[in-house]
Amino acid sequence: MKRLIIHIDEEKCNGCGLCVPNCAEGAIQIIDGKAKLVKDEYCDGLGACLGHCPQDALHLIEREAPEFDEEAAMEFVRDLKENKITVEEVLAADEKKPERPVFGGGCPGSRMRMLNQDHTTPAPEATGSGDISFSLKPQLQQWPVQLSLVPIKAPYFQDADLLITADCVPFAYPDYHPKLLKGRKVVIGCPKLDDLNSYVEKLTAIVRSNDIKSITVAFMEVPCCNGIVYAAEKAVQASGKDLKVTKVRITIDGKKEVV
């Protein structure tokens, strides 16, 4: 299968090891003085290690690779901590194994991918009496979209117009795809149910680590939803970037108000 996976530029890498503790799956280790990807199956492709390399030696690329195996990665991390195995032993064992397909492992819902929406608009679904029959072309350009799952530094964030959306907005606003999402990369979250401080930290890292062109935050009119506006504004302030946050409020009955 073809998927996003970490690529390490060994010419740039100086072996500082700052990337290692930021890879929870143990996929990156220092071997012979350089950061190396131990096994493709241990890399989830989310890019949590990006932004921690002072040499800019880490990048996500799309290539043929086995599917991420979360169970195997966590077992590898446990074995390393308990001194049951060494990285060298894992590499030596892999050299003796014949190539075989790898099945299962990991959550497909969190695998990062870029979407091409240049396909033909799908045929409208059948509608009942009195309904208008039509179908909108989807405008989503990347996956995942949940703020807790998106990588800090992803290819789709470069030169992006970023849309930060409270997760109730697409349900309340019927024109969400053509009038808000179109042409933008998106992250979503719920400021009432989730940890707002973690949102501020994650958004700060995203804005600081990428060349974001503009930020729009879409939120509901209910008071608790102002938290996502707060998170967006605090993130821009903490990042040190000079970016205006455009605020779009959606009413419960589906109207859009720029505030």
Strand neighbour order, sheet with most strands:
8-7-9-10-11
CATH topology heading of the largest domain: Rossmann fold
State the distance separating the first and last CA atoms.
45 Å
Give the helix proportion (percent range).
10-25%
Q: How many distinct folded domains?
A: 2
* CATH architecture label of the largest domain: 3-Layer(aba) Sandwich
Write the layout of secondary structure elements.
Blueprint: E1 2-8, E2 28-31, E3 34-37, E4 58-64, H1 70-81, H2 87-96, E5 113-114, E6 142-143, E7 161-166, H3 169-172, H4 176-181, E8 185-189, H5 196-209, E9 214-220, H6 226-239, E10 245-250, E11 256-258
Parallel strand pairs: 7-8, 7-9, 9-10
Antiparallel strand pairs: 1-4, 2-3, 5-6, 10-11
Helix pairs in contact: 5-6
Task: From the structure above, extract its key features.
Rossmann fold, Alpha-Beta Plaits, 6 helices, 20% strand, five-stranded mixed β-sheet, alpha/beta, elongated
Mind explaining what this structure looks like?
With 259 residues, this protein is of the alpha/beta class. It folds into two domains: 2-107, Alpha-Beta Plaits (2-Layer Sandwich); 112-116 and 138-258, Rossmann fold. Helices cover 23% and strands 20% of the residues. It is built from six helices and eleven strands. It has helices at 70-81, 87-96, 169-172, 176-181, 196-209, 226-239, and strands at 2-8, 28-31, 34-37, 58-64, 113-114, 142-143, 161-166, 185-189, 214-220, 245-250, 256-258. A five-stranded mixed sheet has the order 8-7-9-10-11. A two-stranded antiparallel sheet has the order 1-4. A two-stranded antiparallel sheet has the order 2-3. α5 packs across α6 (226-239). The protein is elongated, with a radius of gyration of 21 Å. The termini are far apart. Residues 98-106 have low confidence and may be disordered.
